[in-house]
Structure formats: C-alpha cells, structure tokens
Amino acid sequence: MIFNKETAKKTAEVLLQINAIKLQPKEPFTWASGWKSPIYCDNRIVLSYPLIRNYIRETMAKHIEDHYGKPDVIAGVATGAIGIGALVAEYLNLPFVYVRPEAKKHGRQNQIEGHIEKGQTVVVVEDLISTGKSSLNAVAALKEAEVNVKGMVAIFSYGFDVAEKNFNDANIELHTLGNYENLLEQALDTNYITKAEQDILAQWNANPSEWNAN
User: What distances in angstroms separate CA 102 from CA 23, 109, 142, 148, 168, one per listed residue?
Assistant: First the structure.
C-alpha cells in the first residue's frame, strides 16, 4: 500500500476535524462483523463539507494522474465511493461508472452501472479499506467486463495485514490518501488522544479480531 506521509497527515487532520473518523478507545464501537473497535470511519461525511471534499477530490485526482496517467474511466465502489468517485471523474473530465457488490436481481441485472467498453483503462476509487474484500470484488467484476484495471485509490485504510495480502494476491496496486499509523500520529500531535490511548489503538490494529477494550 503506497501513501505520502504529508498527504496522510493532512487527510487525518481533515477527517478528524469533521468526525468522519472517531476514536473512542474507552467506548469502542461494534462493527457489523462483530469486532469491537476503538475507531469508526464514515468517509461519506466528507461530501457534506465542500472545502474538505474538494481537498479529497483534488488530491485523489492528482494521485491518479501522477501514478497512472489519465485512465479512460473512473469506477467507484458502491455505495460509499459513488459520491467521491463521481467528483474525481468530474474533476478529471472522465466518464464514471460504479460497481455494485453483486448484479441486480431485476431489470438489466447490471453489476457495473454506467457505460464501459472492453479494453478501456480504469482506476477504481474507494472510500475505505478494511480487509479489502469488497473493494477487490469490484475489481473482479471490472476484469470480468474485460477492462484494464490500472489500480485503486482510497481515502483511508486501517492498514490490516490481511488487506495488504489480499491486494498483493490480486496483483492490484493500492494508493491511500490516509493510513492508520499517520492518523494516530496526527491525533496525538493535536491532543485528540493521549499516549496511553494511542497505545490501545495500536494494540487493536495489530490484532483487531481478538482485541478487547478491557
């Protein structure tokens, strides 16, 4: 997973500022998977703050141009990355499609919504990477449509080892604007958390499925 430290710290700053990321080591959240977690991330909140969504849009677009040139199409992963993906595509003046978790059961039964053609180059936009499975499911759907997936750019990653393995196994390059390590650094530097809370958050990240707040 590739990231730029300066960008990662700035991304952490803005996500914490608008509560897109919440850190609660003493009152952990429960994820849908059943995991107890001292962090909750909802990057869709970015869309409600024009200055911050513009920062995310423009930084993502620059990453895409710097690392991949200009692809033929931007693809967002439904549902969390539809909004930011469309904004990135608009900024780059490129077509946009989005990819559902599975094909619709009715109508045209599309999994990919929008117009895309065989052989086109695509960069995938994602809002959040946890294990990477749902993101790579979207990549698999695009590959089945016989397009060339150049890579993926995400707003934030929890930095789990399993995600890195999944992306390596799929041979997909992932760039993230923000990452967990720099989030904790930024949160500590701005007194959002204490050093003791940073230690708890680091312990969770090392073994999230077994972590217990007590």
Answer: 32, 9, 12, 20, 23
The per-residue pLDDT for 107 is: 60
| Predicted structure pTM score | 0.94
Work out the pLDDT band at 213, boundaries 50, 70, 90.
low
- Alpha carbon 136 to its chain centroid, in Å, reads 12
Which two tokens mark 42? 């909802």
Place of tokens 């972590």: 211
Nearest to 16 by CA among 38, 35, 42, 34: 42
- Among the listed residues 177, 163, 155, the one whose alpha carbon sits nearest the alpha carbon of residue 208: 163
CATH class of 5-206: alpha beta
Cα angle value 7/83/56 (rounded, 5°) = 15
**What three-state secondary structure class fits 191?**
coil
Cβ atoms of 135 and 77 within 8 Å: the answer is yes
